[in-house]
Write a structure and sequence with these properties.
The protein is mostly beta strands and 91 residues long. The protein contains no helices and 9 strands.
Length: 91
């Protein structure tokens, strides 16, 4: 028995270095998750979420929020004006 074709599909590919899972709907929208030993990445349309051992980055188009140890950056790394930076002083 097989499923009726709907235009929706999912797949997972396993290799020695990574796992990639994708879901696509009949309107062409796609979501993907990639897992490696050093990072996890998620992508849905224009939005991305990337995590490594020392940094988290949420990005939509060219706008990003990056969190690293002791530092939060808001904005595009290629911005022509200064980025907004957050830093907490510890006494």
């Amino acid at each position: 028995m097989s499923l009726e074709p709907t235009g929706n599909a999912t797949s997972t590919k396993y290799t020695a270095g990574q796992i990639v899972t994708k879901a696509v709907n009949d309107k062409g929208k796609e979501a993907a998750v990639t897992v490696t030993p050093e990072s996890i990445g998620q992508k849905v349309d224009k939005a991305e979420l990337n995590q490594s051992g020392d940094k988290l980055e949420a990005k939509v188009g060219s706008t990003a929020v990056t969190v690293a140890d002791g530092k939060v950056t808001l904005g595009d790394d290629q911005a022509t004006e200064p980025l907004v930076l957050g830093n907490e002083s510890r006494a």
